[in-house]
Structures are given as structure tokens and as C-alpha cells.
Amino acid sequence: MWNIIIQPVADHLGLFIMVISASILGSYFLVRKLDKMRLVDAETRARNIEKNALEQAERIRQDAELEIKQKQLDAKLEAEKDLRILREELHERERTLNKRDDALAQQQEQIKKQEKVNETTQRKLAEKIRDQQQRSEELEKLIHKERETLHQISGLSKEEATNRILSELEKELQHDMGQLILKHEKKMQDTCEDISREILLSSLQRYAAAHTAEATTSTVDIPNDEMKGRIIGREGRNIRAFENVTGVDVIIDDTPGVVIVSSFDTIRREIARQALAKLIIDGRIHPSRIEEIVLQTQEQLEKMVQKIGEEACIEVGFPNIHDKIVNLLGRLHYRTSYSQNVLRHSIEVAFLSGMIAEQLGLDERLARRCGLLHDIGKAVDHEVEGGHPKIGADLLKRYGEPKEVVAAALHHHDDFHVEQIYTAIVAAADAASASRPGARRETLERYIRRMEELETIACEMPGVEQAFAIQAGRELRVLVSAKETSDETAAKICREIVRAFEERLSYPGEIRVTVIRETRFTEIAK
To answer: Are the C-beta atoms of residues 478 and 467 closer than 8 Å to each other?
Structure first.
């Protein structure tokens, strides 16, 4: 059974092995054939590549040889070109040298000719010098004889005659010099006036502020006339208490609906006005309530004064000023000069001073500071003796302000030195601010009467010829006779006029008196 099964399998297996062996042998011979063909093909390609490489190398060699020959040719052409240019330059230099040689030869000939001319000229000049020396000697002899003759005729020695001639010459020179100085002074004065006028007009136009005159009296409106009786109180108890606490005078007259508060201290007057208005609104008017309301008003007004001063400093650009000076600036808000608010006037002077200083090339901030603080003394001039310039200067010096600011406050109404330029600027700005239309208000009759009084009192003094009140009555110019008075008498007249003003007149601020004594000599040349 098993033999029957195994025998066919063995037959098939042998056949299978034979087929596989034949396939393997066929594959082997095929691969060898293919390898042989590839080898032949590779050798063929290698021979072709070698041939192409040799041909390409030959072409490169030929191209390199052509390029080298072309570069050699170009270099030869460039060298020939440079050589040609060099030859042309050498020829040009040679021509130039030839021209210079010709020119030098001509110059040598001219020099020789000039030397001959110079020799001739020197001989002639030497002859002229000898002639001139002879003439000078003769002239000196003649002058000596003339001098001896003049000395014999006039009877003067040589030194006396020389001194007299020099004296006459000095007088003539002084006269001519004086005329020349006056001419240039007049021209310089006109030029300075034009420039200053232009600067002031420019500054005034740049700072165009509105102006309204402020009233100097404080009034309080009341609802009815019965309120007057309540303000007065039983036997005047309320009004006395109010006046004692506030330090003001309360005027109650027949004017309907109005009560007037009067005081030289503007702060006290403002406190009294506000306190009285609050009492009228509150209705409870008795001594204890008056003291309470007045105390509250004082505290509120002090805060308001400080705030107003701070706002003014910030407006001008100085937020770090001393607190005491800030408080004084705030007080100026309640101070008027000829009905012009002094704080607004100070701010305007500050801006005008800064603009003028800027156009003059000076420190604009320092000028503004000087202008802002120039009238600071008016805040306390009713409490301290003296004029507001002196008071203000002392305050500013005490609180460490610069010397220019102190000088501007002290001298803006008086004479100032030339080196105090900021004081001059502040004085000009102060005058410009005060003279603006609408800035200050005063009745025409009162203004004319004050001016007439000043001139009349001055003219009463012996030796006075004329008197002129200027600067709205702040200054008086007095002309005295040179024949009737001397310099010492003129000084005495000035003191007597000032004393008469102090005794007979009532005026705000200060009045400056200037006495002028002039001697003139006039001659006419015909």
C-alpha cells in the first residue's frame, strides 16, 4: 500500500528537481550573458567619454590660447595709447617751457629797462631832496626871523604865545565837539524813541486784555427799611458789635434799600460786606451771631484770597512762589488804584514786561516775575508806614526774591540806574497798563483840580517861573529862574514844595517833585 503511494510521489519529485536544476542553469548562463553585454557597453561608453573629454580639452586649450593672444593684443594697444598720451603731454610741457623761457627773457629785458629808469629817478630824487633841504633851511631861517619879529611886536614869549594858540584851538575843538555830540545825541534819542514806541505797541497789541473800572465803595442791599433797624439793634447794640468785630464803619442813611460799608482796609471791608449779607439772609442779628458769622466769613475769605493768589501765579507761570507772597497777591484782588483792580493790573504788567524783555533779548521769565510783584506793597500799605514801593521791596527781600525783582518794586516810580534794565521795563509796562482806555476812572473835575492845586502851590514859591504837573499828578516839574536862585536855593525850593504838598493836600501814593535850574548863553554869528 505504501509502495503504491510513495512510488508516484518519488517520480514527480525527481522531475521537479530536474526542472528546477534546468532553470537554475539557464538563469546562470543568462546572467553571465547579460554581464558580458553590460561590460561591452560600459567599455564602449568609456571610450566615447574619453574621446569627448579629449576633444573638449582641445577646444578649451584652443580657446585659452585665443584669449591669451587677445589679451596680449589689448595690452599692447593700451600701452601704445598710454605712450601716445604721454608723448603728447611731454610735447605740451615742452611748448609751455618754451613759452615760459620767452616770457622770462622778456621780463629780464623789462627789468633791465626798469633798473635804468630807477637809476635815473633816484638821481632826480636825490637832487630834489637836496633842493628841498636847502629850501627847508631857508624857510626855517625865515620863520625864526618872523617869530623874533612877532615876539618883539607882541611882547609875548614863545611859551606864552604857544599856550594862547593852544587855548584858542581847544575852545574851537570843544565847540565843534559839543555840536557833534548834540547832533548824535539827538539822532540816537530819536532812534531810541522809535524803537521803544515800536516795542510798546507790539507788546500792547499782543496782550489785548479787557478793562473795566471797578467801584471803590462796598454796598449791601437790604430787602426793606425795617432791616436797617434790626441791623442797628436796640440802642445800637448790633451795629456797635458788628463794627467792633469787623473794624469797619457801617453807614446807614436815608438811602432806600442800601447799607454802606466803609474801611481803608479792603479785606476787612470785604469780610464785613459778606458777613452783613449773610446776616441779612439769615435774619438772626445779635452780637453772638454776628461774631460767629464774621469768623466764618474770615476763614472763607482767607481761603478765597489764597486761591485767588495761586490762580494768579499759575496764570503768569510761577506756581512755586512763597505762600506769603501768594496770600499778598490774593489780597491785591480786593485793592483798587484809581478804580483799577491792582491784581489784574499786576498780571497785565507781568505779561507786558515779559513781551518787552523777549523783544530786547532779555530773560522773559524774570521780567514777568518783576512785573507781577512790582505792586505787592499795596496789599499792606494801609498797615505799614511808607509808600508801597519801599514796603513791597522789603517784603520781597525778606522772602528771598531776586535782586532784580526787589529793585523793580522799589524803583518803578523813581529814578533807576541804567544797569537796572528790568526796572525800566516794569516802569514802562506799568505806565502802559495804567494809561489804557478804561483802565482807570476819575472825574475830570477832580483830575483838573488836583493838577491845578499842584501847579498853584509850586508857583507860590519865590523864584519859580513855571510848574507842570505830569503823569496824572504823580510828578511835578518846576522851572526856577537862574538869575534869582542858586543851586542851593533850588534844593530848598524843592523841599518847601514837598512840605507844602504834605501839609495842604490829600493824595494817594507819592508825588515826585523835580526842580530844574538852567542857565543858557546864546550868541548869533553874523
So the answer is: yes
Helix ranges, 412-476 (H): 421-434, 444-459
383-441 pLDDT per residue, tens? 777 778 888 888 888 888 888 888 888 887 765 555 678 888 888 888 777 765 544 54
Nearest to 252 by CA among 227, 286, 278: 227
Q: What is the largest CA-CA distance in the chain?
A: 202
- Structure confidence at residue 414 (pLDDT): 64
Residue 69 sits at the vertex; the CA angle it makes with 67 and 73, to the nearest 5 degrees, is 115
The answer to whether residues 476 and 467 touch, using CB atoms and an 8 Å cutoff, is yes
Residue 417 CA to chain centroid, in angstroms? 21
CB 250 within 8 A of CB 236: no
From CA 287, how far away is CA 237, in angstroms rounded? 8
Integer angstrom CA distances of residue 215 from 212, 302, 305, 472: 10, 22, 19, 19
| Residues with Cβ within 8 Å of residue 142, at least 6 apart in sequence | none
| Cα separation, 458 vs 479, whole angstroms | 10
3-state SS string for 23-54: HHHHHHHHHHHHHHHHHHHHHHHHHHHHHHHH
The yes-or-no verdict on residue 443 having pLDDT over 50 is no
36-50, 193-207, 356-370: which has the minimum mean pLDDT? 193-207
Distance CA 32, CA 510 (A): 141
pLDDT of residue 215: 45
Phi, psi of 462 (to 5 degrees): -65, 140
pLDDT band at 46 (very low <50, low <70, confident <90, very high): confident
Which residue did the predictor score with more confidence, 193 or 350?
350
